[in-house]
Amino acid sequence: MAVDRLMGILAVLLREEQVTARDLASRFEVSVRTIQRDVDRLCQAGIPLRTLRGAGGGVSIMEGYSLDRTALTDADRGAILAGLRGLDSVSGGGYYRQLMERLPSSRTQAGDDCVVIDLASWYGPLLAPRLELLKSACADRRAVRFTYCAPGGDSVRTVEPCRLVFRWSGWYLFGRCRLREDFRLFKLTRMLDLEVLEETFPAYPLPSPITPVDRVYPDRITGVIRFRPSARWRLIDEYGGGSFTVESDGSLLFTRGFPDGEELVRWVLTFGDQAELVEPRELRDRLTKTLRNILSKYDR
């Protein structure tokens, strides 16, 4: 947008004092003529710019005129940079990089790299274009259609997209599902055949996309699992150091609520022979049957 570019040019001039029109055109990916028009607009807005032609020339803010450069502290700048770098890690374009360029330089660069946020995933190169596509659909209020893969099977969904949400180490689309007639979170990695439709939908009040954890993973069943000491690192990694007690023989006793028995059995199986399901008893029988079925595949 022209307004964004004007603000960007002003930020560059505050930081670097004098820049050539050709350099500005390269940074903002426009023509030199467009930059010249932007300089005229800034002058008309009351910003006294000076243009010098020839070698050593360029565009600069006239001496004696100043803008407040202290609106952002170095700590503020570092925090904003960390957020922009995180968004840039999953961006398919250079928009966030240009925003970083517009930030005024800090007196010291020491705090700028203290926090690194990488929002990319193993999903690889398909994530960035999908995010950009859904971001545009949210901004334009255009419905999207996709096949959604879930434990209960695949289903075709038409959704009115509202927000892109990064949560639980993954990217989700928050929107109104026409099939369920309610707002839902859809994980981007489970979407197939995503397409943006021509039809639009009106703006309406939105509930919070941050669904409480107890609604997504309700504690409907309590599992008691005994782990070998070798599984300690993973229990700490997933649930914290206070999630288990150490038994007299060194084993770790873990008690926690799960949404259903299938989720509990599936999680215990990921530990291999490091875990023993103690309770509920009926799930021990189901786990035993599952293990026998697995064993039969290899006995063949």
Q: How would the blueprint of this fold be written?
A:
Elements: H1 2-16, E1 18-19, H2 21-28, H3 32-44, E2 49-52, E3 58-61, H4 74-88, H5 95-102, H6 127-140, E4 142-150, E5 153-167, E6 170-177, E7 182-187, E8 191-200, H7 213-216, E9 221-227, H8 232-239, E10 244-246, E11 252-258, H9 261-269, E12 275-279, H10 281-299
Antiparallel strand pairs: 1-3, 2-3, 4-5, 4-8, 5-6, 6-7, 9-11, 9-12, 10-11
Structure, briefly:
This protein is an alpha+beta fold and 300 residues long. It has ten helices and twelve strands. It has helices at 2-16, 21-28, 32-44, 74-88, 95-102, 127-140, 213-216, 232-239, 261-269, 281-299, and strands spanning 18-19, 49-52, 58-61, 142-150, 153-167, 170-177, 182-187, 191-200, 221-227, 244-246, 252-258, 275-279.
How would you portray this structure in words?
By secondary structure, the protein is α+β, with helices and mostly antiparallel strands. It folds into four domains: 2-61, Winged helix-like DNA-binding domain superfamily/Winged helix DNA-binding domain (Arc Repressor Mutant, subunit A); 73-120, no CATH class; 125-210, Roll (SH3 type barrels), CATH 2.30.30; 216-299, Alpha-Beta Plaits (2-Layer Sandwich), CATH 3.30.70. The protein is 38% helix and 27% strand. It is built from ten helices and twelve strands. The strands form three sheets. The chain has a five-stranded antiparallel sheet with strand order 7-6-5-4-8. The chain has a four-stranded antiparallel sheet with strand order 10-11-9-12. Helix 4 packs antiparallel against helix 5. The radius of gyration is 28 Å and the shape is elongated. The mean pLDDT is 83.
